Amino acid sequence: xxxxxxxxxxxxxxxxxxxxxxxxxxxxxxxxxxxxxxxxxxxxxxxxxxxxxxxxxxxxxxxxxxxxxxxxxxxxxxxxxxxxxxxxxxxxxxxxxxxxxxxxxxxxxxxxxxxxxxxxxxxxxxxxxxxxxxxxxxxxxxxxxxxxxxxxxxxxxxxxxxxxxxxxxxxxxxxxxxxxxxxxxxxxxxxxxxxxxxxxxxxxxxxxxxxxxxxxxxxxxxxxxxxxxxxxxxxxxxxxxxxxxxxxxxxxxxx
Amino acid sequence: xxxxxxxxxxxxxxxxxxxxxxxxxxxxxxxxxxxxxxxxxxxxxxxxxxxxxxxxxxxxxxxxxxxxxxxxxxxxxxxxxxxxxxxxxxxxxxxxxxxxxxxxxxxxxxxxxxxxxxxxxxxxxxxxxxxxxxxxxxxxxxxxxxxxxxxxxxxxxxxxxxxxxxxxxxxxxxxxxxxxxxxxxxxxxxxxxxxxxxxxxxxxxxxxxxxxxxxxxxxxxxxxxxxxxxxxxxxxxxxxxxxxxxxxxxxxxxxxxxxxxxxxxxxxxxxxxxxxxxxxxxxxxxxxxxxxxxxxxxxxxxxxxxxxxxxxx
Lengths: 255, 313
Description:
By secondary structure, chain A is an alpha+beta fold. Chain A has nine helices and nine strands. Chain A has helices at 13-22, 62-66, 92-96, 121-129, 144-152, 166-170, 187-194, 227-231, 242-254, and strands spanning 2-4, 32-36, 49-53, 72-74, 80-82, 103-105, 136-138, 176-177, 211-213. In chain A, strand 4 and strand 5 form a beta hairpin. Chain B is built from ten helices and two strands. Chains A and B meet through strand 2, strand 3, helix 2 and helix 3 of A and helix 3 of B.
C-alpha cells in the first residue's frame, strides 16, 4: 500500500470504514491517524501535522517470528494476519512490533458502544459476522477476507473495489493506493519508483509493505502538513461534477 | 513538543513511551513470574553445583507452582497455553517465548526424574542396577541444560525487542542469568539454615563472588546501553536519577547487592560466622533485590517513537 501524505486530508474516513468493515469494538482501532505538533505553539499559531499509520504488513515481520503459538501468520501474498483461535494473548507481538500497530483486546476495550445499555444492532451484527475474541491481539489484516472473496470472483486487488481494502475504497482523496508490490507494472510499483517512496524505520530490517510518498514523517523544519491538505482545496468538490453526474443519471433514468 | 489528546490515540507514536504490557495492570504477573523464573532456575543450578537435593526440590516447586501458573494466568487466554508447546506448535524454532516454555517443561520433567532417582528416602539402585549411574548423569545434564535455558530465556525474549532499545542488547540474558545464580546462592543459604545440609560458609563465599560479578555486569549493562540510543539513554536516566531511582538504588543496589555483600564481608573481617538472623536478613534483602531488579528492567523499558529523529528533551 502507498500512502500519499499530500493527498491525505486526515479526515478519519479510513478509520471509520475499517470500524464498519470489521465491526471493531469501541476501544479498538486498526488504522490510526496520529497527530503531532512539530513546534510548540499557542492557540491558532500552534501547527499540527498528522500521519496515517496502520500495520505495515512487514515482509520480515518480527511479530511472526516471536509468536509462541504460530497464531501470527504471513500469507504467500504477504498479508500478515492473526488467527485468533490460536492466540494465547501473551502480548509479545504487541511489545515487539516496532510500529506499535497491534492492540491487545482486553475486556475494557470491548465494553460495548453504550455500556449499561443494550448492544446496538451494529454490535449484534458484528458478533455474528465478525466476532472479536477478548484476551487476544488484533491488527489490520488489509481486509484479507474481502480480497479473497473478490479474487475468487475474478476481481483484481487494488484495481477493483471488490478486492481492495475498505480504507482504500473509502478514501475520498484517493490518498491510498493498493496493489501487488511484486508486479513491476502495477500502479503501486510505479508510484514507489517515481515518487521515491519511503518506509517507516527500514533500519529495523522489517521491510514494511506500507510506503509513504509526497511528504515527510519526522520533525524536519519543513515537515508541516501542506496547505492544501489543511484546507482540502485539492479535493474535487461534488458540486463541480454535478452537471456531468446529472447527465449520466438522466441517461440511466431514460433507459 | 506537545500532543493533542483529543486526536492522539496513541502517544507512544510521537514520543518515547514506557512499555506497559509487561509491567502494569495484569502485566504485573509477568514481573512476578520473571522473578520466580530467575530464582527457580538459579537455585537449581546452584543446588546442582552444591549437590543439594533439597535445593533442587525447592527450585522445582518455585518453577512449577509459582512461575508457571503465574505466567499462564497472565495470558489473555490461559486455557490455550498448550498451544505454545509441540506438537501443537513449531514456534520454538523461531520464538524465544515458545522456547522458554519448552525449556521450562523439559527442565521440570528431567529434574523431577533426577530428583526421584537420587531422593534420600528411597534407594532405586537395587532396581536400576548398573543403569542407575548413567541414568542419573543423563538426567542431571539434561536438567542442568534446560535449567540454564529457563534462566536465560527471559533475557532473550526482551533482547529481541528492537523497539525497546534499553532491552535490545546482548548482555541482558547474562544479567538475568547471573542475577538468578546470585539469588540462588542466597536461597541455598536459607535452605541450609532450615536444615538442608548446606555448607553455609562455602555458599557465603560463592554468594560474595556472584554479587560482586553481578554488580559489575549490571554496571556494564547500564553504561553500554546508555550509549546505544537516545531512548535507551532515557531509560538509564529514569533508572539512575529519574522516576525509578529510589527503587533502583534502594532495592537493586542497596538491598539486592550491598546489604547481603556487607553481611557476607563482615563475617570475613570479624572472623565469626554471620548469625542466623544476619543470614536471614541477607536472604530477605537478596529476594527484595531480585524483585526490584526485574521491576526496574521492565519498568524502564521505553518504546522508540514512530516519528523519526525525535529529539528527547
